[in-house]
Amino acid sequence: MEEEKQRGKGNRIILMPSPFQGHITPLLQLANILYSKGFSITIVHTVFNSPDPSSYPHFSFLPLHGALSETEASKVDAVHLTEVINVRCVQPLKECLTLLLSHDKVKEDGCVSCFIVDAALYFTQGVCDEVGVPRIVLRTGGASSFLVFASFPLLREKGYFPVQESRSEEVVVDLPPLKVKDLPVFQSKEPEAFYKLVCRFVDECKKSSGIIWNTFEELESSALTKLRQDFSVPIYPIGPFHKYSLAGSNSTSLLTPDKTCISWLDKQEQKSVVYVSFGSIVAISEEEFLEIAWGLVNSNQPFLWAIRPGTIRGSEWLEPLPSGFLENLGKRGYIVKWAPQEQVLKHPAVGAFWTHNGWNSTLESVCEGVPMICMPSFGDQKINAKYASDVWKVGLQLENKLERGEIEKVIRKLMLGDEANEIRENVMNLKEKANVCLKKGGSSYCFLDSLVSEILSLKS
Ligand code: UDP
Prior knowledge:
The protein has helices at residues 2-8, 21-36, 70-75, 78-88, 90-100, 103-109, 124-131, 143-150, 152-157, 191-206, 221-230, 260-266, 286-299, 325-329, 341-346, 359-368, 381-391, 404-415, 418-438, 443-457, and strands spanning 12-16, 40-46, 60-64, 112-118, 135-139, 211-213, 235-237, 273-277, 303-306, 333-336, 350-355, 372-374, 395-397. The protein is of the alpha/beta class. The chain is globular and about 65 Å long. Helix 8 packs parallel to helix 11 (221-230). It has a seven-stranded parallel beta sheet, sandwiched between helices. Helix 2 (21-36) links the parallel strand 1 and strand 2. Uridine-5'-diphosphate binds next to helix 2, helix 15 and helix 16. The site of uridine-5'-diphosphate has 20 residues, from helix 2, helix 15 and helix 16.
């Protein structure tokens, strides 16, 4: 009731996601959390990878037309696409915010408290300063990886960049337990573009009115403590967003999840299935794909594999599989194009998650107490994987060559080996902490309260 009263007073928040699955999901979840606290919600977004307004009838949606076409967007990698958005959206966003802040609009829709935006969209700080609205940043990745991003200039000064393979086993002096091989890189023809993007978004975060994280204090306390020392803006770790119990669960998926896999899981033994998914962006070669397929089959564990179309470079979907592979697989494996991942990880039949360690996947696995096989590819994934395997000790890294024998070995080790029990115990402990932090008096619960008070005190 208090919430409805507050909404009645017209406390509106405008939010903008970066248009990638792993960024859209947490931003919409955050919008739902803030809605539940009594704020009205407007989502400003690119036309490319636009969220589905019908899943959120309680929000207003405003597309930024003319900034970027689908065809243009499909031609470049995520780093370049982010750069293009940072340049092309300046004018459309300025016009959009000016309209939303105009006297007539405020009279109609209520006053705007702040603009909450994905950290990667650094251009928004300048726009917000110009139109006079406070900007709060949402960092959709973890705090530990952000700390590494914030150290990029120092790492370059100390000669760690560009990353040299010959030094891969060296521990990074200022960032233990990370080794040189764990440092974030981006598979791009121009690694410099990634470096520049990161430095720019870290700098603009420092000018914001606060940074929200989809993490929790107990998971990343040392990184959060360090960030509080280095950044003078308030820091709000209020995750895990997807575990808030909110009325109605709205879909954030850009692809349609294939729910038939749940009835397949229903027929499997408890904790027997290896769930495999490499998220929404990672691509692999045909050779790697075949090694994974044979490794899974040879492990003799049942597996559920989400293979997004386009994952295998040069193929539409499963064409590289040898003829007869799927027929011989029988009931031992189940393949879908896109899984209802949260539901899958919650399922009692799932015993391990072979993941690329995108932050959302890592957090979702932790929250359901599922041990991980870590196979990071680029960006923050290597750092998340290192934390999962060496700091939280909730998974094993697939470190050597991606080869069927190695895969078989690591699956056995995680499902059956001596280490398996210890890893399971560690991840169950973290699961419990993730539950507790959201309860009354828990860390995320309290940080959310202070975030709400802060937003209510902001005036545009
Ligand atoms: N996901 C899903 N079904 C799939 C694969 C992934 O629902 O088959 C979701 C997953 O739950 C997560 C998001 O897609 O919320 C992927 O985000 P993440 O940060 O893990 O990786 P990214 O896609 O950004 O690399």
